[in-house]
Amino acid sequence: MAENQKEHKRKRADSVQEALAQVRSIVQKHKLVEGLVHMQDMPRHELVEGLVHKQNIAELQNKLDTLHPADIAAVLEQLPLDERLAVWNLVKTDLDGDVLLEVSDAVRETLIADMDPGELLAATEQLDTDEIADLAPDLPQEVIADVFRSLSVEEREQLHAALSYPEDTVGALMDFEMVTVREDVTLEVVLRYLRRLDELPDNTDQLFVVDRRESLRGVLPINALIVSDTDRLVSDVMTTDFVSFQPEDKADEAAQAVDRYDLVSAPVVDARNRIVGRVSVSDIIDYIREDAETEMLGKVGLRDEDLFSSVWKSARNRWLWLSINLLTAFFASRVIGLFEGSIEKLVALAALMPIVVAIAGNSGNQTVALIVRALAFGEIDRDKARRLLLKELSVAFVNGLIWGSIAGAFAWVLYGNIGLGLVMVGAMMLNLLVGAAIGMLAPLLLQKMNRDPAIGSSVLLTFSTDSMGFLIFLGLATIFLV
């Protein structure tokens, strides 16, 4: 099964790259042909030029018509800005909203900037309420106002509700497309009702059973509906053992539940147990993907960036990380400056300092990775945190003793100074303990402050292991060797 999934992903990636290559080839060919025609001196030049342009547009349009909105989004993200906008203008209007939902935030910004309010309104009108809520933060205020006016009263209430929840909650992820049935009807009635629908919502593996007040009573799995006697009541077939969420629940916790219980969909209920929506596995996958991308960029101090944005915009996007690095580097340099005399007397210290820092940084990053993962899966409480801290310090002590001894032996052999080797052992042991402590405590502290532990921990760790590594190594060398 895993091999089949990998093969499917590979084929999908290949198809996107093939589509990208074809689109770029058509665009480049069109530019070349139109350029040649423009330079030719011939009768009815404007007519010929217009015909060539229409032919080129038709070829590109035909290619785009064969692509899924997600594949069009992937192609647009990999095109330079001028080619991207040229291709974007050829995407069918009824696909605009779906494509905008699929592209990254940075690319979406460039596409929306190229659209007038009428086009944006037409694009959003094709979307469900929960999808409009996903797109709303990027739309101009006047377009949002027009969108609200175009919705029904029920849809307006749904959109208000979706926009009222923080991004990391179930309420922001849930959709309102679901099928509810009563418990006092037969399965035959349910089947007749389903046949009257145009289609079922995506990822519908169960129907939600409610009473007259819309309170959730149970769920009716589709497979049970199909195989059971149609004369039976819904109440006889439904199950009351199910997983449900509330809109205020954390999206991370919902993702864990979806993974743990292999859920395809789950109901979302309010404080009075009335069903207000549902969350599906596709919603969870989208959230996890976006969260992982944000975390990956955040670790190096980046926000979402268009690959083909201007030099100035890309430079500003990277200032945060560079400014933090500059400050920490200045601090580390001042620590080294305190021991300039010691370094002048024993030049070998300058060559060995990076080893002490690098080993502790790598060890600390291993601790950070383990703790962040444990926090993400809710595996740590206060008692476990104490035990884990002791464990990580013990691991750091053992590793410091082993690898410090190896590094110390190397320094002794290389410089013929056993004292330098012993200082190396002590410095590595102490700095690995620092790395373990910061790697453990930094994620816990950031989470307590409601900050993403995966993003800030590496900055604190690097600052600590660099500064303390230099201070410990040079301090010990000054005391015992100089």
Describe the structure.
The protein has three domains: 15-167, MgtE N-terminal fold, CATH 1.25.60; 180-282, CBS-domain (Roll); 318-480, SLC41 divalent cation transporters, integral membrane domain (Tetracycline Repressor, domain 2), CATH 1.10.357. Mean pLDDT is 86; it is low at 1-11. Helix 7 (117-125) packs across helix 9, helix 20 runs antiparallel to helix 21 and helix 22 (418-448) packs antiparallel against helix 23 (453-480). It has 482 residues and is mainly alpha-helical. The protein has helices spanning 2-39, 45-65, 69-77, 81-88, 93-102, 105-113, 117-125, 129-135, 141-150, 153-164, 170-173, 187-195, 222-227, 234-237, 251-260, 281-298, 311-317, 319-337, 340-345, 348-376, 382-415, 418-448, 453-480, and strands spanning 180-182, 206-210, 216-221, 265-269, 275-280.
Structural class: mainly alpha
Could you please say which CATH topology of the largest domain applies here? Tetracycline Repressor, domain 2
CATH class of the largest domain: Mainly Alpha
Under CATH, the homologous superfamily of the largest domain reads SLC41 divalent cation transporters, integral membrane domain
Helical stretch tally:
23
Physical arrangement of strands within the biggest beta sheet: 1-2-3
Radius of gyration: 30 Å
Give the tally of structural domains.
3
Distance between the termini: 64 Å
In short:
This protein is mainly alpha-helical. The protein is 70% helix and 5% strand.
